Amino acid sequence: MDFIIKNKTIIAFISFTLFCIISLSVQSSLFTLSFEDAVGMFLMPFQKLYHNVQKGANIFWAGFTELGDLREELQRVRKKVQTYDNINDEFIVLKKENIRLRQILNLQDRISYDSFPATIISKDPDNWFRTIIINRGDNSCGIRKNMPVISFYEEEKIVFGKVIEVKGSVSRILPIISKDMKLGVMFQESHIPGLLTGSSLNSDLCIMDFISNSAKICFGDIIVTSGMGGIFPPGIQVGTVVKFFVIESKAFQRAIIKPIIDYSKIEEVFVINKEIDKELLELFKKEE
Amino acid sequence: MVITYIITGALILLSLLIQGHSSFDVLRLAGVKPDILFVSIVYFSYSFGSFYGGVTGFLSGLLHDASSNSPLGLLAFPKMLLGFIIGMYGRSILKENILTITLLLFIASLAKGFITILFCYIFHKASLSDIITLILPESFYNALIAPPIFFLYDKIFKEALSRESY
Question: Is the separation of the CB atoms in B74 and B119 below 8 Å?
Answer without folding.
Answer: yes
